[in-house]
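Hi L.,

As promised, GNAT family N-acetyltransferase:
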Amino acid sequence: MDIRPTTEQDHELFVETMHAAFGLFPDPPGEDGTGVWWSAFEPERGLLARDADGRPVGTAGAYTFELTLPGGRIVPVSGVTAVGVLPSHRRRGVLTAMMRRQLADLRARGEVLSVLLASEALIYRRFGYGPATYTRALTVPRLRAALTPPRGGAAEPAGTVELLHRDRAVELLEQVYDRYRRTRPGSVSRPHRWWARGAGQPPIAPKPRYVALHRDADGVPDGYASYAIEDKRSLVVDETVAATDAAHTALVRYLLGHDLVQEVVFRHVPPDSPLPWQLADFGAAQPGKHTDWLWARVLDVPGALTARGWSTDGTLVLDVDDPFLGEHHRHLLTVRDGRAECTPTDLAPDLSLDISDLGSILLGGTTPSTLARAGHLHPHHPEAPARADALFRPDREPHCLHWF
């Protein structure tokens, strides 16, 4: 078996092999090759595994993204995607070889993190990835959708909501999303190539959607909600993107006030969403699927820890094991005035942890004390988990909307 990088000439072979690995048949793209979820592939970043006879048996790809970290810091990351092995060649080490080669390539790019959406948790944790953001669905029956008025009878913030068709709003959607993702830890960028080629899921994909666009008092777009009515009874919201709380509230009011539907389904809600608290009937927001979303893989421990912002001063000695890459290092993390230093040390550790667990706590979506209680982290003294919780606490709960 050999693994080689792909080029533009391999695009059709890569797509065909990837679909076969998942047991899928590709939808036909548009005449210009757009409008399908893989149309934003970056051919020069793919890997193709071939057997001894030169036949393709596995694929792995990556997108070029930016990731927002706590403190508003932004770093380049690789969005790993299209990882699959033909059913006829599984359990022969093909996947392990591809992942090892890919991690080496990502490190060579100088990136401190890579991210992915895990189809199966058991697969990617062994390669050093850990769940870092979470998302959930909420359903609100229209008969219980009244919102609480502002406290003290205060006036609603000035602003407007206008109704647009998705096809006429792509440029505005791109602008608003880019503003939003820079404010939310865990968010990844949506490069222009995605919007131009209609890749991914709605509202990027060119499927029929209505868009509620919010403008602030100065007429500047600062939020949107993409939605469609399904089965003549459910208004299903793909995503609600808002750069401000005022925009979010206005969009929620618009969606919950829509006539001729029995319920409003919010597919993608962050764990810290204020929506349940905004309802007059607190129990009206019926929880749906709660799931992991973005998984993170630390490629450079000091680089990742010093890249994010911090809201609390302190020190912590981390003993980090990376079994997949055969590495083990101990680091002294020192945080002062929102910035960190991370240096090798021989000091006694406060916490021992796997590289996948470091990926889970890095963005603040999972607390170290939770992982300690679960037996993932080993604290070397009783106060270590609480100290780590205070240190890694984010300025805002991480959340990722982007599907790739």
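Residues 94-108 form the longest helix (15 residues).

Thanks again for sending the construct details.

K.
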